[in-house]
Amino acid sequence: MQVLDDAGRRLLFTEARTHKHFTPAPVADSVLRELYDLMKFPPTSANCSPARLIFLRSNEAKERLRPALSSGNLEKTMSAPVTAIIASDLAFYEQLPKLFPQADARAWFTGNDAMIQTTSFRNSSLQGAYFLLAARAVGLDTGPMSGFDNAKVDAAFFPHGKVKSNFLCNLGYGSGEKLYPRNPRLSFEEVCTIL
Amino acid sequence: MQVLDDAGRRLLFTEARTHKHFTPAPVADSVLRELYDLMKFPPTSANCSPARLIFLRSNEAKERLRPALSSGNLEKTMSAPVTAIIASDLAFYEQLPKLFPQADARAWFTGNDAMIQTTSFRNSSLQGAYFLLAARAVGLDTGPMSGFDNAKVDAAFFPHGKVKSNFLCNLGYGSGEKLYPRNPRLSFEEVCTIL
Fold first, then answer.
1. Could you give the CA distance from residue B167 to residue B149 in angstroms, rounded to a whole number?
2. CA B45 to centroid of chain Cα atoms
3. Among candidates A82, A75, A56, A86, which has minimal Cα distance to A140?
4. With CB atoms counted within 10 Å of each terminal CB, which end of chain B scores lower, N or C?
5. What are the φ and ψ backbone dihedral angles of A187, each rounded to 5 degrees?
């Protein structure tokens, strides 16, 4: 049986922190590709893979995001080397004949808006978490946030209306400045029951 | 800069598979605690940590789950060493004075049902993904599924109505039997844009 070694546990789980301040070092295209080539593999329901990503790196792209940011997230986001929009394609099920050839999975969704919405939000959130841990795996630090105006982001970046923003994440190489002390976590007994 | 080594990438991302069939080896309490002690660390919004877990291991507990399972998920779930219910506590914000002492974050949620629902679903899904990768990190194989009757699970396991099931996940040590060939993933160009 294989398990993750201590260095891997520290990097992805136990010692990684959310960062607000990054060094000026740029994030290369090759690193963003390496990140995607990890995050694409863990499971989604019927391999539906609804997540769509926009990496905002240019000043022009960041300025399009600015009006959607909450005041508390503004400065750290405008100064981050990259800000990713983690979004979800509500037309994800059109890809199912390719992504899940075992069954006619597209038919499970066609015309079922409630199931489309629930599956899109759950699975793009799962993929958002895979994104965060994959970013750490390739040496990036992350600063995810949901404090922004989703409708403004969607109007600015997804005007066709089929793709909806889920959350944002700053990316770069953390400077380690002004990290909060780590907040407490709930105990096993508070969260888990074995029956 | 630290990155995850190749063995860690294979274990968590590139070579891990969803399993339907497990060996009879039991899953020890200590392994479930080790899993939780990894999954609790990656980020949630304002550290809100809404996920709640029930690990169903006894025959009696599995029988309580049976009526909620879809036919395609029945046999593999009843025979798995453990089935976890990944759920979310809609009263998560009552814990925020402890979990996020930096601000009066409880007040952001009190009386705001839409924000409670969205935050609960997004963040319990993120934590569900952390659960899946943490399970792999401690040597378990996973079989997640959303094909079940959430209302029946909630009535059977969360009768007080404050906790809602999100998805289920079988756990154990995969036998490797009857694995599907891995389905294709979308390419970087299909999913990602750099602006």
1. 10
2. 17
3. A82
4. N
5. -80, 165
| The two three-digit tokens of residue B134, written as one number | 């943490």
Cα separation, B174 vs B74, whole angstroms: 17
Nearest residue in chain B measured CA to CA from A56: B195
What's the gap in Å between the CA of A8 and the closest CA on chain B? 6
Q: What is the DSSP letter of A18?
A: B
Residues B138-164 pLDDT 10s: 999 999 999 999 999 999 999 999 999
Beta bridge pairs of residue B89: B163
In total, chain B counts a number of residues equal to: 195
Q: How many CB atoms lie within 10 A of CB B113?
A: 9
CA gyration radius, chain B: 18
Cβ pair B53:A173 closer than 8 A:
no
Q: Quick one: which H or E segment has residue B41?
A: none
Phi, psi of A149, deg, nearest 5: -95, 100
pTM (2 d.p.): 0.97
- A interface test, pick of B1, B5, B11, B12 with most A CB neighbours within 10 Å: B12
Look-up: residue for tokens 């899953």?
A: B27
Q: Which position has the token pair 């219910």?
A: B85
From chain B, pick out residues whose CB is under 8 angstroms from the CB of A43: 18, 132, 142, 144
Encoding tokens for residue B61?
A: 């507990």
CB contact under 8 A, B42 and A119: no
The residue written with tokens 């995810």 in the block is: A144
Specify the pLDDT at position A162.
Answer: 95
What average pLDDT does the segment A137-162 reach? Answer: 97
Which tokens belong to A20?
Answer: 């607000």
**A43 with B132: Cβ contact below 8 A:** yes
Is the Cβ pair A12, B18 closer than 8 Å? no
Q: Note the ipTM here.
A: 0.97
Token pair 């499971």: residue: A43
- Burial of residue B104, with CB atoms counted within 10 A of its CB: 0-12 exposed, 13-18 middle, 19 or more buried: exposed
| pLDDT for res B146 | 96
Using the predicted structure, report yes or no on whether residue B3 has a pLDDT greater than 90. yes
Place of tokens 């940011």: A69
Contact B99 A130 (CB under 8 A): no
